[in-house]
Fold this protein.
Amino acid sequence: MKNLLVLLTVFLCVTAFTAQQTEVPTMKYEDLEKRIQKENEKLLVVNFWATTCAPCVKELPHFMEINHKFRDNPKFKMILVSLDRLVDKERVIKFIKNKNLTAEVILLDDVKRMNTWIPRFEKDWDGNIPVTIFYKNGEKVDFNDGEMSKEDLEKTIIHNLQ
């Protein structure tokens, strides 16, 4: 009986630890900027993507693999910022489940002001996705425009964690 309880406890802990989001918070870009600043003791990987973007969907398994690899590092955090429309929120939630996304997902509900917030995140960003921005202690340290390979993502993270 004791062994069964131990197994059940381990199962519940593992299930809770790898649980996917069942709800996706929505925010404006000002809230996202504040959120980035709150993670000031970490290397924060912020990936902008959408469920309808083929290169975004293609690179997400690499991001999940790397997120899993670094998840125990207290100085690392990954946030996936969906640029899907607010009316497509349920599709985003289903996508999270179907693709087994374990990093935190946020829906950026600010499409009408894209020309305002895109240059605030990166002056060289032309608006295409996927885009990944790396922040360390709240300051931008790297910017990748376009799809990232697993190797490049990992190399950038390791370089900036030092």
In short: The chain has one domain: 22-161. The beta strands are 26-27, 43-49, 76-82, 104-108, 131-136, 139-145. Residues 5 and 11 are 10 Å apart (CA to CA). Residues 54-70 form the longest helix (17 residues).
